[in-house]
């Protein structure tokens, strides 16, 4: 039996985070893309948010995260998010060296997942982009400019 080395452990963690992040976001992005495909029906209210689509997307993200964390938590910790990794560094649960290895792997995994979904879903549009709903302020209207000027 081979002895364990820190370099080998870091490599296994890096590959686990890359593959885990890829799988998590691949299934989540594919579900969001599928939910946002036009189905030929017109909504009763224009610009209305379809809550069934939002629920489907939220459940797909949650199920994808839960399944992939369950599979990869013993391999790499199942963080799949640079913000989570940074938080674990701040509370000293993960070493800064390991974080410097995991964060690029997470970013690459997420980018590869987005590219893979873009490649397999037909059409030119990416339909899993985030946008504000109707009636939600974006901070760029006249009222927000006036409030910024007062401070």
Automatic annotation (TrEMBL):
Intracellular or extracellular location(s): Cell membrane
Lipid bilayer topology: Multi-pass membrane protein
SUPFAM superfamilies on file: Aquaporin-like (SSF81338)
PROSITE patterns: MIP (PS00221)
A single cellular component GO annotation: plasma membrane
Keywords: Cell membrane, Membrane, Transmembrane, Transmembrane helix, Transport
InterPro entries in alphabetical order: Aquaporin-like, Aquaporin_transptr, MIP, MIP_CS
Pfam families recorded: MIP
GO molecular function, one term: water channel activity
Ranges that cross the membrane: 54-73
Broad class of the protein's primary localization: membrane
Similarity section: Belongs to the MIP/aquaporin (TC 1.A.8) family.
Protein name (database record): Uncharacterized protein
């Amino acid at each position: 039996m081979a002895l364990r080395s820190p370099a080998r452990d870091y490599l296994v963690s890096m590959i686990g985070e890359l593959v885990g992040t890829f799988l998590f976001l691949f299934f989540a992005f594919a579900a969001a893309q599928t939910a946002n495909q036009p189905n030929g029906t017109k909504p009763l209210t224009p610009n209305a948010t379809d809550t069934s689509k939002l629920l489907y997307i939220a459940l797909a993200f949650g199920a994808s995260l839960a399944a992939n964390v369950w599979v990869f938590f013993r391999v790499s910790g199942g963080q799949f998010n640079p913000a989570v990794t940074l938080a674990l560094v701040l509370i000293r649960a993960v070493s800064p060296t390991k974080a410097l290895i995991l964060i690029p792997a997470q970013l690459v995994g997420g980018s590869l997942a987005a590219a893979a979904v873009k490649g397999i879903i037909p059409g030119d549009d990416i339909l899993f982009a985030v946008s504000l709903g109707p009636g939600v302020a974006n901070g760029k209207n006249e009222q927000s400019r006036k409030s910024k000027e007062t401070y």
